[in-house]
Every structure is written in C-alpha cells, then in structure tokens.
Amino acid sequence: SETGRTMQGSSQALGATSSIVQAKIFRIQIPLQKPYTVSYGTFNTANVILLRLETNTGIVGWGEADPLPPFTQETAASIMSVLKEVLPGVIVGNKNATCINGIHRMLDERISGNLMVRGAIDMALWDILGKTLGAPVCQLLGGAIRRSMPILWPFGVQTPAEDVAAIKEKLKQGFATFMLKLGKGDVNNTVARVQAINKTDFGQQVHLNVDANQGYTLAQANQLVSKLADLSSTLGENFNLSFVEQPVTHSCSVANWQSLQAKSPVPLSADESIQTLQDAKDFAVSGAAGVFSLKVSKCGGLTNSREIAKIAELFNIQLLCNSMLEGGVTQAASLQLACTLPNLVEGGHCFMSTLRMADDVTNFSSFCVDGQVSLPPAPGLGVEVDEGKVAKYCVEEFTITPEN
Hints:
Blueprint: H1 2-15, E1 20-38, E2 41-55, E3 60-65, H2 76-91, H3 100-110, H4 115-133, H5 137-140, E4 148-150, E5 152-155, H6 160-172, E6 177-181, H7 187-198, E7 207-211, H8 218-235, E8 244-245, H9 254-263, E9 268-270, H10 277-286, E10 291-294, H11 302-314, E11 318-321, H12 328-338, E12 368-369, E13 372-374, H13 387-393, E14 394-400
Parallel strand pairs: 5-6, 6-7, 7-8, 8-9, 9-10, 10-11
Antiparallel strand pairs: 1-2, 1-14, 2-3, 4-13, 12-13
Helix pairs in contact: 6-7, 7-8, 10-11
C-alpha cells in the first residue's frame, strides 16, 4: 500500500547514517513596524539568532534563539559565543543527527543552563528529523489535535481610550484575544484599562488578559489583585479578564505567588518564572499559578517545552503558547507543539510576532490569515527560510565545518 511504502521509506531514511556536516550562525536584526513598549523598555528592532544545520544528505534544519534582555539572561553575544563553543564538539560531525535525546545528553556534558542555545539546536534537530521522515514535527510529537488556532494581539503601554480604539480596529481584522502590556508599577492605569474594555460593547466575545512583565513589586501586585477583585465584584458576570501574567519578578518566591493567587479573582500566569522543568514542578505542586506561559526559545526548545506542558497537564494547569520578538522559525516550532496540546487557555495564542515586523526571513506570516494561524503542510517545522533575506538583515555570521 501507499502507507506501507511511506513507512518503509521513512524507516530506511531514519536508519541511514545522517551526519551534520556544516553549521551556520546568523545574527539578524529586523525593524518592527512600530515601537513596542513594555514595563522594562521600548523596542524598535527584533534581534534574532538563526542556526542552520546541514546534513551529509543535503537536509537543512533551522533553529532560532530570541534573546531579549533584561527578560532573558542570555544575550545575542552570549548565544553566539556558546554556539561557537559547543557546535564543533557536539553537533558538527555528529554521526546521528536524528537522535535528539542523545545529542541533548552530550550537551548536558558540555554546558549548563543556556536554554536559548539549547533551544536553537533542538529546533534545528526536530526540523531535520521531520524532513528526514517527510513528516511535520507535530506528527512526531503525537499528532495534531487542531489544525488552526486564533491569534492573540498584544498592545503596549497606552491609555484606556487607545486600548478601546485599537481593539475595535483589530476586531475588523479577525482578532478577538488581546493582551495589555502594563507600565512599571502602574496599578491604577491597569485597572482603568481593564474597566474601560469591560464597559465597552464590542458586539462580540473578546478575550482579555494583562501582562506586567515583572513590572510590579510584591506590594504593588497585591494592590493590583485586590483592585481587580473589587472590579470583579462590581461588574459581576460582565467582568472579563482571563489571567494576569507575571506581575512580579522571576526571583519572587513560590510562596508569595501562592499568596497572590489566593487573592486574585483570575488565574495568575507564570512566564519569566517558568523556564526549567524544576520551575514548572515547583509551581505546579504548590498551585502558585493557574497558567504557564510556554515559549519554546525561553524554555530550551521543543523537547523541554513538551515536558513542561506535560507537567502542566498533570496538575490541570492551562498553557498560553506565548512569544517574544520572534522570527518565523521559533513561531513555527511553537505552533507545531501547540497543535498537539490539550490544555491550552481559551482564546488566542501568540503567533503574531512576524506580523509586527517590517519583514520576515521566513514565510510564516503567510499562514496567518484573518486572525487565525494554520499549520504549514510541509515536513519538519514547515516553514521556508529565505536565505537572501537572511543575508540582507545579517549583522554577524559564522560557519563551522569539521575542518574548523
């Protein structure tokens, strides 16, 4: 049968020796369409590290890292440096490019932490595996339970009137889930923004959430959840807020998160606080957050992100598939995983990153139509990378072969 022939061909492809013969690292900078302001600053450019791995069979796998200091400890410079160090000894020349678990064990022996470095390598390896087998990565992760998803649209720090006007415009474009980025410690404006949106009749269901990006002290966060609880009591069934994301710093204790969650009228979402499997375990066991914010670059790639997702599912915690200022490779990897997960928050997820840029080096944006993102049909991560555009936006590159 055709299925039998495909499976036999895939098995033969997987069994064949597949060596990584070359790695290229690119640091690219792509301007945003408009400045983006969050609690820790205003951004005008997306800084992306791309990793291109090529096998002896001619298959190319792409990975990506998305440093965003101070949100991430890793910087573009540190990621480039560590990749230059580990690629020659672990990746380039590796005789089994499709053994992702084995390569992760080798990485464990060479580096600790460096989740974005690991994430870029991990994405590229999954891309190679999918292309080797002729299957999309979601199929290798157990199969897609959805083929498309609604897209969340975020707004930077602005006034309540600007929020309402922006939502009305985005509703016309097909978006219905919105995230408000909050000013540093600005409790009153946050409550005013939520109240203004709650009191506006948009003519359809709108999903709303807020993200402080660690911008509040613990005292301010307590004040925020208290005021939101009052607003919830006042508005009753008309109160509309899905969750509050990362109100406090990543160093804030789990016990303090527990206290905040107990007082909050809505779930708290842990973003910067959830990076490792141990972080996920600590928050899950304690019930300190009702939502985990999953970012494949932040969390070390698809392999680690899937493990975090499993922990969340075990403890009935919902997931937001979130993003930073990401290019199409990371967005595609996130989508491949998201379409396999049963415990996603209701509403849209963060697949708008390339739509905010003046350009993209992939075709990911072509799968985002009318506020919905659809799975690409191609194998691997499913996106095509325009290497001409990579060269256009590249500010630094490095090539590694077995010879160097």
